[in-house]
Amino acid sequence: MATAAAGGRRRRVLFFPLPYQGHINPMFQLAGLLHARGFSITVFHVRFNAPDASAHPAYDFVSVPDDGMPADSPDTVQATMDHIVSVNRACEAPFRERLAALLERQRARAEDVACLVADSHLLTLLGVARGLGVPTLALRLGSAACFRCLTAFPMLCDKGYLPVQESSQLDAPVVELPPYRIGDLPASSAAAHGQLREVLSRVVTAVTTSSGLILDTFDALEADELAALRRDLAVPVFDVGPLHKLSPAASSSLLRQDRGCLDWLDGQPPASVLYVSFGSLASVSASDLVETAWGIANSGRPFLWVLRPGLVRGAPPSSISLPDGFDAATRGRGVVVSWAPQEEVLAHPAVGGFWTHCGWNSTLEGVCAGVPMLCRPFFADQMGNARYVDHVWRTGVTIDGELQRGKVEAAISTLMGAGEPGAGMRRRALELKNSAAASIGEAGSSSVNVDMLVSLIQSM
Ligand code: UDX
Predict the structure, then answer these.
(1) Which of 383, 375, 378 is nearest to 399 (CA)?
(2) Is residue 251 part of a domain?
(3) Which of 213, 373, 405, 429 has its CA 20 to 30 A from that of 89?
(4) 115 and 220: one domain?
(5) Is 457 helix (H, G, I), strand (E, B) or coil?
(6) Does residue 179 sit in helix, strand or coil?
(7) Looking at the 3D structure of the chain, how many domains does it have?
C-alpha cells in the first residue's frame, strides 16, 4: 500500500471544496483517505457553509474571505452559476495571500506541500496555486458520464442540441452521447446559456490544466465512460469511488443529523421503508409538496421523509406544513425529519426504496446500499444521473412531467411491490452493490487507483 511516508518526508495535501454539502462530503472523504495514508491535511474554505473544524481535529483549516458572495444557498442553475463565479472572484486575492503565507511557514518545517486538490469549479484558485508553484489535482463531483457531457458541451451546442428550443425536443436522443436524451443534458434557460457554456468550459479547463482528474465513481459502474475519458483526456483519471465507503467516517454534515430515525428504522420489517430525500439544494413548490405527501400517504408503505429547512419555495424555512389530514392518514407509519444520517439510513436493512433527486452523492450512496431508486431530478447533472438509474443500470424508475399523487403512488408500487419489474430492479441493485464493494476490495479497481493517486501525490 502506497503511503505518504514512502519518501521519508511528511507531505501536506491542501484541499479547497466548493461550499455545498454535496461537494464538501466527497472532498472530506478524500481528505480522510489521504490522511489515513500519512498525509497532513489543510482545508481552505470560505465562510459560507464553513466546515466544522472541531469535527476534524487532525486537520488545519484556513478561512478565506468571500466578500461579495450571495448569502443564500443556490437552488437553481442560474443561482449556482452566480455563486461559482463569485467564489472564484472573491477568493482569488485572499487565497493567494493565505497560500503564500502557508508555503512560507512550511519552509521552516520538516514537511512540504505536495499539491492542492480543489473542486473542478474552482479554476481561478487552481491557477493561483500553480502560479505559486503548487501542483494541482481536480476533484470533479459527478459521474464520468456527466464529465463527458461537459467535454462535449461545445459540440452539443454546435449541433443544435443546446440551448433547448422546444420542450417537445426533450425526449430526442443525443446521438453522439448515448444514452442521453436532450432533456438529460445539463442545461439552463436560453438567456443564461452563454454563462452556462462558460462555467462548464472552465470546469473542463480546470481538469485539463491540472495534473489529474479525481472522480467519485467506480469502473464496474461506468466502464465505458471511464475508458472514453482516458482515451480523450491528456491527464490521468483516478476513479476512486465510492469514497464514502473507502474513507474513515468523519462527519462533514452542515446540518445536524437526526439519529433518532435509525431507532425507528430498527422497528420496521426488512426492505419495507421508503426513504425520501431531495438533497441539500433542490427546492419544491407548495403544490409539489402536497402531491408528494399524498403520493407517499396513499402508497400505504412505511416512510422516512427528509423535509430540509428551506425545501419548500415560499414557505418559512424553519416550518414546513404538511397538508391537512396527512398526519392522520399516516399515523404510526412514517417519520419526518429535517436532516438524516443518509448513508446509515440507506444501509439500514429496513430501507427498501429511495426516492431521490439524483444528486451524484445520493445516487452513488443508493447504488452502494443496493436500494432501488425512485428518481425525480431537478437540475444540473441530476437528469442524466436519473437516466443511468432507470435506463442503463435499470435499478429504478423516474417520475417525469407534472408531479401527481397517482404517478407517485404507482412508481412506489412498481419499485417496492412484489413481482416484476420491481423484483428485477432490486436484483440488479444488489448486483451493483456487490460490484461497488468489490471495487474497493483488495486489488479492486478503485483500490488500485487510490494507490496510484497516492504514488502520484508522493512524487509531486
Ligand atoms: C448537489 C447538486 O445539486 C447535484 O446536482 C450534484 O450532483 C451534487 O451536488 P446535493 O443536493 O448536495 O447536490 O445532493 P447530493 O449530491 O446527493 O449530496 C447530498 C449529500 O447530503 C449526500 O452525501 C447525502 O448523504 C447528504 N444528506 C442528504 C444527509 O446527510 N442527510 C440528508 O438528510 C440528506
Answers:
(1) 375
(2) no
(3) 213
(4) yes
(5) helix
(6) coil
(7) 2
What is the whole-number distance in angstroms between the Cα of residue 359 and the centre of ligand 1? 6
Euclidean distance between CA atoms 245 and 233, whole angstroms: 27
Residues 155-183: pLDDT tens digits? 999 999 999 988 889 999 999 999 999 99
- Check whether residue 81 and residue 144 sit in a common domain: yes
Q: Which atom of ligand 1 is nearest to the CA of 360?
A: 7
Q: Half-sphere exposure (CA, 13 Å, Cβ side) for 170?
A: 12
Quote the pLDDT of residue 6.
47
Residues 101 and 122 in one domain: yes
Collapsing DSSP to helix, strand or coil, 55 comes out as helix
Residues 206, 124: Cα–Cα separation, whole Å: 8
CB 411 within 8 A of CB 166: no
Q: What is the pLDDT of residues 281-302, one digit of tens each?
A: 889 999 999 999 999 999 999 9
Q: How many CB atoms lie within 10 A of CB 403?
A: 18
Predicted TM-score (pTM) of the model is: 0.95
Q: Is the dihedral of CA 410, 416, 422, 428 positive or negative?
A: positive
Return the best residue to mutate from 245, 257, 258, 280 for the ligand 1 pocket (most ligand atoms within 8 A of CB). 280
pLDDT tens digit string along 171-225?
999 999 999 999 999 988 888 899 999 999 999 999 999 999 999 999 999 999 9
Name the residue range of residue 115's domain. Answer: 10-241+443-459
3-state secondary structure of 118: strand
Cα gap 138→209, rounded to integer Å: 9
Which three-class secondary structure state does DSSP give residue 337? strand
Return d(Cα 270, Cα 385) in angstroms, integer. Answer: 27
Ligand 1 near 253 CB (within 6 A): yes
* Per-residue confidence (pLDDT) for residue 107, from 0 to 100: 84
Cβ pair 399, 406 in contact under 8 A: no
Indicate if 182 and 279 belong to the same structural domain: no
What is the domain-level CATH number for residue 60? Answer: 3.40.50.2000
- Extract the C-alpha cell encoding 218: 467506480
For residue 246, being part of any structural domain is answered with no
Using alpha carbons only, what angle is made at residue 411 by residues 77 and 217, rounded to the nearest 5 degrees? 50
Q: Grid coordinates in use for 219?
A: 469502473
Alpha carbon distance 55, 359 (integer Å): 24
Strand ordering across the sheet containing 136-140: 60-64, 40-46, 10-16, 111-119, 136-140, 213-215, 237-239
Distance between Cα 443 and ligand 1 center (Å): 29
- CA 340, 351, 263, 306 dihedral sign is positive
Q: What residue spans of 375-421 are helical by DSSP H?
A: 382-387, 405-416
- Check pocket membership of 283 for ligand 1, CB cut-off 6 A: no
CA gap 393, 429 in Å, rounded: 8
Atom 25 of ligand 1 has which residue's CA nearest to it?
342
